[in-house]
Amino acid sequence: MKIFAHRKFLLFVFSFFIALSTFATAPIKALIITGQNNHNWQVSHVVLKNIMENSGLFTVDFSISPKHGEKMNNYIIDFSPYQLVVLDYNGDNWPKTTQDRFLEYVRNGGGVVVYHAANNAFTDWVEFNKIIALGGWNNRNESSGPWVYWKDNKLVRDNSPGVGGSHGQQSEYVLNARNTKHPIVKGLPPKWKHGKDELYDRMRGPGDIKDLLYTAYSEPSLGGSDREEPLIFTVEYGKGKIFHIMLGHAGDSPENNPSMQCTGFQVLLLRGSEWAATGKVTQPVPKDFPTATSASFRKDYKAP
Ligand SMILES: [Zn+2]
User: How far is the CA of 71 from the centre of ligand 1 (A)?
Assistant: First the structure.
């Protein structure tokens, strides 16, 4: 009888550790929302899923909206299974039920990634603009909030009138770290060269950036703003953590897609996604990360 009890106890301890290790390694459940975008979402959403799933850290589902101009009132999303929502959507307004559920999801601690043109969406949705902090295009102007950019070693808010959102010609450009301690960027180089991409500038919004991670200089000779623009940062909304990355203009195919094939883009996406979902980053700094002078690429969206 005594031996039996002892065995039972060992079995309990064993199951406990199995459960613990399963918990520790269970992939993060993520949902990518797409289906309308003035960008090549047919490429971007598949590439985002590949990057995320190839890391072994995430399982990714899609929510694909009706087409632009179609009836939206049945587009109801259930956020409850997910720890992370990745926004790859720039299109018609969601129905109120989906808007309300999204805000509730974020307020209650859900993680969000705002990817590239997702920050063009929903100009008139006040709470959404708090979540993204900065947005562009779709009639944004000074009524959307200040321009926010890096000047004299700090973020400044500039209420001058003018356009919200523009970019110059695509080019390779250098990202400059404005934070070295945040878990998303800890150990990454203070400067790294990004693959050819757009550089979003003159973005406007409520502008409540929590942690500014990287800026880049928008070159006037390429049609840019002549400002150091905030391109990668975090936002807080309720208990929710938001990772906003303005990089990643999708190419015409997964094979011709330098902005997303860039190792720096992929590593930041993965680290920012893990942080937004869990508050931690368990990923080591990879050896193939770009340097200040040369971009590097994971053309198949996998770590070597
Ligand atoms: Zn773009």
Answer: 26
